[in-house]
Specification:
single chain, 129 residues, alpha+beta, three-stranded antiparallel β-sheet, 7 helices, 53% helix
Length: 129
């Protein structure tokens, strides 16, 4: 089998979404969590930090960092503030009604967004720098 014969990530997700509406709801519910997890994991890897060392920077415990990196639990607003301040990371979340073009995050940021999805009557774009 050639690599080109394999389905894309988007195709696999679409199949899951079509087969299981609950899967889609959970995917949408955890979109912010996954986006933040990716940014935190990339930051930690780029800076050669262990979860324990990152926990010290964030003034939290290692298990709390592991939970954050799991991408299964949406971080609260104070946690987003802590991440931004401690790591010098810019996070942007644009929520707009479905069918309305997001205005707060520019086109370039939208193309490079960590996560973008439509659900619950809204379009959500999560970007980080």
């Amino acid at each position: 089998m050639k690599l080109s014969d394999l389905p894309t990530h988007e195709q696999v997700l679409a199949e899951h979404f079509d087969a299981d509406p609950e899967y889609r709801r959970e995917w949408e519910r955890t979109a912010l969590a996954r986006a933040v997890a990716v940014k935190v994991i990339v930051y930690r890897a780029e800076h050669g930090l262990s979860q324990t060392a990152l926990a010290k920077r964030l003034k939290m415990t290692q298990p709390a960092v592991a939970r954050l990196e799991s991408g299964e639990h949406n971080p609260a607003f104070p946690m987003l503030l802590r991440i931004s301040e401690a790591l010098g990371v810019e996070l942007a979340i644009d929520i707009s009604p479905t069918g309305q073009e997001p205005q707060l995050i520019g086109k370039r940021a939208q193309r490079n967004a960590l996560e973008s999805f439509e659900g619950n009557g809204c379009t959500v774009v999560v970007a980080a720098a």
